[in-house]
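Sample intake sheet
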Amino acid sequence: MLNGILSITGQSGLFKLVSQAKNSIIIESLIDGHRMPAYPSSRVSSLEDISMYTEDGDIKLEEVFLKIFDFTNGAKAIDPKSNPDELKSYMEKILPNYDKQRVYVSDIKKLFTWYNLLVEKNMIKKKEEKE
């Protein structure tokens, strides 16, 4: 599900890996479809490599997205610009054992921003739908 979806430090939104060039990779914004190069100096993270801290260990971001998807019945989640207490409360309903000491409000905002964008683009599918 998250294969080829990238986050780049300093850039808003998410990007899809399109191809590789000699000294860069070509990415496409999921927001507006604009293509551009990302150079080795850019801090690029693949969403499939990102995980979230829980009290029981780490959980892959894909699993967190699926939990949100189930909780919202495939709809968008809470607005990431909601107040911090609402975001924490919403997060606790979805993932009750998330590590409240190491997962900051900024992480929760980013999580819901990414989730809402992926749902808008129909990029999150339940496991049964993928198979």
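Comment: The first helix runs from residue 61 to 72. The chain has four helices and seven strands.
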